[in-house]
Structure formats: structure tokens, C-alpha cells
Amino acid sequence: MSGDARERILGRVREANRDREPVAHPGSLPEAAEPPAPLGETGRTDPVGAFEVRLRAAGGEVVQLANEAAARSWLDEFATGFETVSVCAGVPDALQPVLPAAPPEEAALGVSAAVGAAAQTGSLLLSSREGRRSQLLPPVHLVWVRAEDVRLTLGDALQSCREDLPAVLALHSGPSKSADIGQILITGVHGPGRIIAAIVGG
Amino acid sequence: MEVHSRDYRDRARRIITETPEVRESVTAATRTFVDNRREAFADLDEAALSGWAKEVKSHALTHLADYLEEAETRLVERGAHVHWAETASDVHRIFERIVEENAVRKVVKAKSMLSEELALNPFLESCGVEVFETDLGEYIIQLLGEPPSHIVGPSIHKSLEDTRVIFHERLGTARDASPEDLAAAARDFLRETFLTADLGVSGGNFLVAETGSIALIENEGNIRLSTSVPRIHVALVGIEKVLPRWADLSTFLQVTAKSATGQPVGCFVSIIQGPGGSAAGEPDGPEELHVILVDNGRTRVLADPEIWEALRCVRCGACLNICPVYRQTGGHAYGYVYSGPLGGILNPGLVGLEETLPLPFASTACGACADVCPVRIPIPELLHVWRRRAVERGLTGSEERTALGLFASAATRSRLFGWAENLAGVLPDWVIRRLPMLREWSDGREPPRATGPTFRELWDEGIE
Description:
heterodimer; A: alpha/beta; Rossmann fold; 6 helices; B: alpha/beta; six-stranded parallel beta sheet; four-stranded mixed beta sheet; 23 helices; 10 strands; globular
């Protein structure tokens, strides 16, 4: 049945377009039309700074850490606020908090490692290869990202993942929010209500 | 979904007179959307952006068959099942098989307007399956037994108080619970539901042909959960959702979010290439991904030489938010899935002009919708096409034809026109209220009054 439906739908689509002038693809978006990233010209040379502005504006938190040692000591302090953790596969040992492990649906904190980030939209790019549940179920989500992986535009960030796409590439660009109850903004509805981007290096 | 658009006038009248708070809620919410959108576009070249987006979507539509085949090939390579459905009953049969083969008992749903077209929830329930909407707004109106009132904010017509009442009844929250407590109660209930559901249903904002990717934009995280936690994910995708290239996606994600809510992008975006879990060598995610490519009237719209451009629509809702007519009633008056200016151009194409007749007329022709459309659909022109066809097919009322006929004969006879002008100036209200067409217009409004000398009198006197 589905096979016949396929042929009929594609047949109707081709018939509909038969006498229509095909429209050419306009190519890449002209640079002048690109939605600007924060900080203007400064943002071009400092995508990490621009990323921080954008993610903070959406209600996210950002911490910049010079190197792995600084990251470690920040993490030790940060982890004292939580009782349990669920860590995604692929987070380096040195960046895992010393906390009792719990399943993602019970953990107080989820930790993952982004495959990229975009300043233009304040987005962290997360791969399903590290597991999705720890990215989604705990109420607080800590995401490690390397400073050199922060791109200026979302297009560049997506392009860098193009050759080896996981089952799901997800963008997290702020805490979970909703205004569906009387148009009043609430955070932490289904996904994490706190997202912290910890940027290492740079 | 059953079509009730023919009752538009009665439904609109009832909403305005019996539930005036709907107008208040809808107007307040849409004004916020409009303000946020304006701010989001303030520092960028909107014309260049919408011009580019228009060309990409028109390109995709004029090469649609090839791109659909390309997307199908990519998805199958990644292990997805691709189904094609011409109608709602095709979709129902596909679901019936998936439900039977996998003994599905509980379904979580992410917001999908296409699933409303297909009346999916009642069908699944008739198969003995429990269905839970998980978008907070959709969940509220599911509890109330209502359809969505807005394609982006389905519960836009409901106040905090409305939600307090229904959550008190159904979830046992306090009668004066705070919005945060209400959201927490819904979250707790739905979290348990996510973890025990057998299958998740989503729509699809975009289908990228080059990579076979389904992209979904949201703010709550319920789409990510619906497409990640249950063992099976079924995505319903209208065939017009195609984007040609991976490189096109980043701009469309931004343009859609900016136009819808003024955000740079949604808080969560899922870009799905295939099933997850052991099928993909990944730690979790659905073992099965079914993608249903749905026609349901779209090829008919595509074949229409005057209306096909409506298929560029990215469902941002900007035309609803800006529309002075939509703001009076919200979406329920329109009697079908799509409301506002979008409903006026798309519904007649999808389900027929006869079934949806008043909708192309539910507009002041002010043109604000065309100004905000991120893919430059010439909405007022398309509304006019449907109006013209309605007249040509004799579908408009005899009163209107009589009134316009009278106007035409007066307007082409100078002396008669002058006489009629003077007459209009002295007719009492009760007569004007009985005149064809004016009667309908003045029902609920003050009838128009002619004041002072007519233009022709001024002309004859000479203007100083």
C-alpha cells in the first residue's frame, strides 16, 4: 500500500511541477543577511565572549576556565551543591565530578561534553553518541565545551559536524522554558531548568 | 480533523460575546510575540533574509519529488522506516500496524499540527492506546478537550485561572497554585509518562534532503524527550517541509524561531538522522524510527498555479500574531487546524473552498501578514484569489451579489450616484441596518454615517 501511495504522491508532485518554471537555489546566505552574533566586530575575534552574552541572555550560565586544572578546581567546588550525578559517556575522567552516580532519571546533575557551540545563537551542540538521557532528565545540566570548538555562526558549527552525524545532533540554547500557563514564563518544564556551559581553554 | 469552518461567523460571534476573556488573552499574548519578533529583526537585514528564505523554499518545492526521494534514501541508509501516506486513513493504517506489532499501550506526543489534521489522537485511543500530549500548552487543552488555538502557543486563549481550575480538578493542585507549582505538577506527571511510554510521536519542522535529517524546534524539552526516551519514534512530516541542503538548515532554524517568538533559536533543537540505541551503536535513544511522509491535500495545493506558494510556510505563526482579525477570537473560530491569515490561504487548498468558505474573507486585507512573513508568501493576494474564486463559483451570498450589483450600476451612472450619495446622508440608522451587506456589517457595530457635503459637492464648489 505504502509503495503505491509513494508512486502516486511522487507522480502528483511531478505532474504539479511539470509546467512550472523551476526556481534556482540562491546559494549561500549573503554575509550581510546573516543574523548578527552579539558584540559585533569584537564578537568576530572573541566568539567565546559572544557565546557567553547570548547564552546568558537566554537564561543559561557560563563559566570560562583557562585550562583543565582550573576546570578541575572549579568543578570540585561546583559539585558540592549536588548529591548525585549522571555522566555521559565521553566526558573525560578529569572532568567528572566526584559524586555518587545515579541513573539519569534520579540524578541531581547531568554532565555532558559538547561537540561544538555557536555564538550566534548561544547553542551547545550535543551528540546522541554520548547518551541522551543524562542530557535531558536531570534538573541541572553541566556541559563542557572546548574554547576552540566555539564558532561564530550556527552554520559553521553545524558544518563542522556534517561529515559524521550521530543519530541526533541536538542544540541546547538555554534552560527549558514555557509560557503556556497564562503567558507567564517558567523555567525547567520538561528538560533541565539550569544549563551551565563550562568553556575550557582559549 | 472535522472541518467546521463554514460556521466561522457564528463561532466568532459566540467567542466574542460569550467568552470576551479569550480576546483579552489572545491579544495580550500575540502582542508580546509581535514585540519580541520586532526586536529580534531590528538589527538585521530582514528583506535580504526573507528574500533568500523564499528562494530556497520555492526551489525545494519546484524540485520536490527529487528531494523527497533523496531524503528517503538517506533515512533508509540510516535504518529508518519511511512510509508514504496520501490521506489520514493511510496514516491510521500505518500506526495500526506499528501499534499491533509492538504491543504499544502508551504514547507520548510532541506538538504536531499535522497530527491534528490527521485526527491521530482519537484514532489511537480507538485502538486502545493511551495518548498524552506533552507540550505544556497541548497538555492543558487536552485535559480541557479542546483543539489548539494557535500553531505555536496552543493554549494562548487560556488564562492562568483556567489552568488553575483544570489542574485542580485533574492533578489535585491547590486551587490558588502558582504558575511554577502548576508546571511542576504537570512535569511530575508527564515525566513518569515519558519513562513508561512505548512510543513517541513528533512532527517535523524541516526535512533536509541532503542528509535525511528531521529538524524540530521547541522550548520545553518535551520533543527531545518524546523522540529519545520511548523505544519507538514516529515522525509525521508533511511533504512540503523539505530543505535541499544541510547548509540551509542553520538559517531556517533561526528565521523560524525569530519570527515565532523573537528568540535567536529555540531552547532545544533536535536534528534527527536515524534511529538511536543499539541499532546505531549508541547508549540510548529509540531502537526504531518511522518517518511518515504525508500528502493529505498538499499535492493539490502544489498543483494550484495561484496558491502553491502557500506551501513555503514554515508555521512560525507571525501572520496570526499580527492579524487584527485573529486577535479578536483566537484560533477556534476558524474551525480547522490552521487559523488566521494562514488558515485563510491554506485551509481552502487542503480541504476545499466549499468547506472553508468564509475564511478567506476573515481578513481586513490590511496586508500586515505579508510584511511579517519570513518566506514572503503574498498572503493578501492569495486571500484575494480565493475570494475571486468564491464569487466565480457562485458561493458568496445572494445579498452580497445584489448589493454589489446595485453599487456597480450606481457607480457607472453619474446622476444616479449623486442621488444615492445624498440619499445615504439622510437615511436613518434603522434603514441602514436593514440594507443588504450593510446589515451584516452593522450587526454589532455602529452603522457608518455620511457627514457634511459629499466629495462631488466639494469638487463643484472648488477647494480652497
